[in-house]
């Protein structure tokens, strides 16, 4: 008779990649929340389309180098990129602030998977979930003639690559804000400030081209613009595909820099673990 070990060693290493499916499965379990997210996105898109068409009127004018078709396309894509992700993150309870408050943050540092890897895999799941909303909305927008297709295949390719890099920047920015809870206990104020900066400086609310030139020049090189402004500008052709590489390299640089800062904060957070509940 052969006895097979049933302990942890026989099971091998934990399959951390399964954590990426945690967010989509959780959202699917709460279908009313999906319906609410869809309603909010549709409402915002509808109002933004009415706003831009009213601002441009029937003259077909070009403002800041952008016509009404580009403005509507930009607005729809920016809404799809930003709103679904923000709403979904707001519904999530997997934040350092909430875990410190109820005491369960201790499990982040006692699991077989490190806290940093756990959050990274979960962040990947959030990005995939947000991308599903984006692709669905893009398909509907193209079918309804609200969104114009990219001007070329090259524009679609670089826009896709830029979107992936932008999601990485978005994750690391949100993570850095969340990690401040280890020092401030609550990150409510920091979250409000970061949300305002993200909405304004990313071009999610108003395209950066409509701001004064000095403001556009500064904000274009901040990490916030890498999340929305750059990928949407590449999609609409406002940034030509041939000129995409400096923007892609800047996005990649922000990803690496923010990841390095996040790694440092994780190490310091582990030494400063504070539990209020439990």
Automatic annotation (TrEMBL):
Region forming the signal peptide: none
Organism per entry: Streptomyces venezuelae
Name of the protein in question: ABC transporter permease
Superkingdom to which the source organism belongs: Bacteria
Keywords, comma-separated and alphabetical: Membrane, Transmembrane, Transmembrane helix
Transmembrane segments: 34-51, 127-148, 200-224, 244-266
């Amino acid at each position: 008779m052969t006895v097979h070990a049933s302990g942890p060693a026989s099971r091998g290493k934990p399959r951390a990649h399964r954590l990426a499916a945690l967010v989509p499965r959780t959202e699917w379990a709460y279908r009313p929340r999906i319906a609410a997210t869809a309603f909010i996105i549709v409402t915002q898109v509808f109002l933004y389309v009415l706003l831009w068409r009213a601002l441009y009127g029937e003259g077909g004018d070009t403002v800041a180098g952008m016509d009404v078709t580009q403005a509507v396309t930009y607005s729809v894509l920016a809404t799809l990129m930003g709103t679904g992700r923000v709403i979904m993150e707001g519904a999530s309870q997997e934040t350092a602030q909430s875990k410190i408050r109820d005491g369960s943050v201790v499990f982040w540092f006692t699991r077989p998977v490190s806290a940093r890897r756990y959050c990274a895999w979960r962040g990947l799941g959030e990005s995939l979930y947000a991308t599903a909303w984006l692709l669905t909305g893009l398909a509907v927008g193209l079918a309804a003639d609200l969104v114009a297709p990219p001007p070329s295949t090259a524009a679609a390719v670089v826009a896709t690559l830029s979107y992936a890099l932008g999601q990485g920047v978005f994750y690391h920015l949100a993570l850095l804000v969340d990690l401040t809870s280890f020092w401030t206990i609550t990150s409510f104020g920091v979250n409000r400030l970061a949300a305002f900066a993200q909405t304004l400086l990313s071009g999610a609310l108003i395209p950066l081209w409509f701001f004064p030139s000095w403001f556009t020049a500064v904000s274009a090189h901040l990490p916030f613009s890498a999340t929305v402004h750059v990928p949407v500008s590449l999609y609409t052709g406002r940034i030509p595909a041939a000129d995409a590489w400096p923007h892609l390299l800047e996005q990649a640089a922000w990803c690496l820099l923010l990841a390095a800062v996040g790694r440092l904060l994780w190490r310091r957070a582990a030494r400063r673990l504070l539990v209020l509940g439990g």
